[in-house]
Automatic annotation (TrEMBL):
Role description: Low-affinity potassium transport system. Interacts with Trk system potassium uptake protein TrkA.
Pfam families to which the protein is assigned, alphabetical: TrkH
Transmembrane residue ranges: 7-31, 37-58, 70-95, 132-160, 181-199, 234-257, 269-289, 320-342, 387-411, 453-473
Designated name of the protein: Trk system potassium uptake protein
Molecular function per GO: metal ion binding; potassium:chloride symporter activity
InterPro entries: Cat_transpt (IPR003445), TrkH (IPR004772)
Membrane topology: Multi-pass membrane protein
Family: Belongs to the TrkH potassium transport family.
GO CC terms of this entry: plasma membrane
Binding site for K(+): 110-111, 218, 312-313, 429-430
Keyword Isomerase: no
Subcellular location: Cell inner membrane; Cell membrane
Entry keywords, A to Z: Cell inner membrane, Cell membrane, Ion transport, Membrane, Metal-binding, Potassium, Potassium transport, Transmembrane, Transmembrane helix, Transport
Length: 480
């Protein structure tokens, strides 16, 4: 049976945390005398009351969760938190609930797709709330990716199982300690990013907002022009800290605790850095040859856009769809890549491509030596059949969701390019798609409501690695 009382209690804790964060934009609204004061007061009151009721009803001496509880809790948390976090947008003038939920789900899943325009003159409280949603979603996913998903063996992530991934009574203190250290590093990197942005010419308000959305690889900006509104120095700051957001945060913790740089010996970290460096230099060379710009400008534009897409941040700097056919094809495939496991980014993730390559090598050896027994390793761990099955299932479901979502979007009247790239950008949590409507120079405001709800579901599926949600629809899940 499902343990409903512990589920209610934990959901109440999450909603309590959300209530506390709602006071931050409320303070901004009061300070600047904005009309959103009432919106945040009502939202915090409703969310806080619901949180108290959940905690009261769910309080129990036994808070142990089984694997079914963990699957359900993971999905419910993102869904219910998004439902309440959308309230300030709903109460804000001119935004219906469909747009409010879309904007919120995009924020919490750190996708970065937006339906809002006029950001340059928008209330400070709304802008800071958008950034906070992405910042909260980023650290939430990191903890889930390190402690929960390896435990549930989602998409081959058991390779990254640690002591914190064991949800026994003895492991709970270790999990709490791990979460605390991750949170401290996350705050430290955010502060460093904010200071660097301010030194590059941003105001403190702009720097704080962009620091939160850069580290979370979310991509929300305070300007309709996104990062194009800021200096070249700010672009390089973005490249560095977006890349940092694409690295496993737990490895920053280990480097500080062990006072070593062993993180750079990790296979996925080396693969990620080599990948973004190679693609950035290649596209920079393409820009330099085919467009009138200096080598440094070509490298800046290429690096920023490549890192933004690969880390699924989705900041806009320039319309890279105007760079020619090669760039269009390159960015289409870059949307799938993702960064490292245990980072704030979405996508398929680098380690899955590396494991797929190892499996291919193993299969080729088997062709030459049919009787041989070959076991490939990844980061000195044997790639077991269990991990292979989990990874193959994840990839198939990933592609199936994109296909189904693309069909739904086409049926709403959208063109094939918008439908296909919209589905990809939602499931991979990238943000912008391709084409004139949802490309780097557009947004999602003109899409039909049905398309927005479908994309919001796609964002949730992609953020939770699909299998976590898909298992809830299997009849076997509800039988016991």
């Amino acid at each position: 049976m499902l343990n409903l009382r512990p589920l209610l209690f934990i959901l109440g804790i999450f909603l309590s945390t959300l209530t506390v964060f709602m006071f931050i934009p409320l303070i901004f609204a009061l300070f600047y005398g904005e009309e959103t004061v009432g919106a945040f007061m009502i939202s915090s009151l409703v969310t806080g009351t619901t949180a108290s009721a959940c905690i009261h009803q769910g309080r129990s001496r036994n808070l142990n969760l089984n694997i079914r509880d963990m699957f359900l809790l993971t999905s419910l948390t993102w869904l219910i938190v998004s439902f309440f976090a959308a309230m300030p947008f709903t109460l804000y003038h001119g935004i219906n609930y469909t747009d409010a939920f879309f904007e919120t789900m995009s924020g919490i899943t750190t996708t970065g797709s937006t339906v809002l325009s006029g950001l340059d003159t928008m209330d400070h409280s709304i802008l800071i709330w958008r950034s906070l949603l992405q910042w909260m979603g980023g650290i939430g996913f990191i903890v889930m990716a390190v402690a929960v998903l390896p435990f549930l063996n989602v998409g081959g992530m058991r390779l990254f199982r640690t002591e914190s991934s064991d949800w026994s009574d003895k492991a709970i203190p270790r999990t709490q300690d791990m979460a605390k250290h991750l949170f401290y590093i996350y705050i430290l990197l955010t502060i460093l990013c904010g200071v660097a942005y301010h030194l590059s010419g941003m105001s403190w308000f702009q720097a704080i907002n962009h620091a939160m959305t850069t580290l979370s690889t979310g991509g929300y900006s305070t300007s309709d022009s996104s990062m194009a509104a800021f200096s070249n120095q700010a672009h390089w700051v973005g490249v560095v800290f977006m890349a940092a957001g694409g690295l496993p945060l737990l490895m920053f913790v280990n480097c500080i605790q062990q006072r070593s740089l062993w993180v750079w010996n990790d296979a996925q970290v080396k693969g990620f850095i080599l990948f973004i460096t190679t693609v950035s230099i290649g596209l920079a060379f393409w820009l330099w040859l085919g467009h009138e710009m200096t080598p440094l400008d070509a490298l800046r534009l290429a690096s920023f856009n490549v890192v933004s897409v690969v880390t699924t941040t989705g900041y806009g700097l320039t319309d890279y769809t105007a760079w020619g056919a090669l760039a269009n094809i390159a960015f289409l495939f870059l949307m799938f890549a993702g960064s490292c496991s245990g980072s704030t980014s979405g996508g398929i993730k680098i380690f899955r491509f590396q494991i797929a390559g190892a499996i291919m090598r193993e299969q080729l050896k088997q062709q030459f030596h049919p009787s041989g027994v070959f076991k490939e390793r990844y980061n000195n761990r044997i790639i077991s059949d269990d991990i292979v099955r989990s990874l193959v299932t994840f990839i198939l479901l990933f592609m199936m969701v994109i296909v189904v979502l693309s069909i739904i979007l086409v049926l709403t009247g959208l063109d094939p390019v918008t439908s296909f790239t919209g589905a990809i950008t939602a499931v991979t949590n990238v943000g912008p798609g391709l084409g004139s409507t949802i490309g780097p120079a557009g947004n999602f405001s003109t899409l039909p409501d049905v398309a927005k709800w479908a994309l919001a579901i796609g964002m949730l599926l992609g953020r939770l690695e699909i299998l976590t949600v898909a298992v809830l629809f299997h009849p076997q899940f509800w039988k016991y």
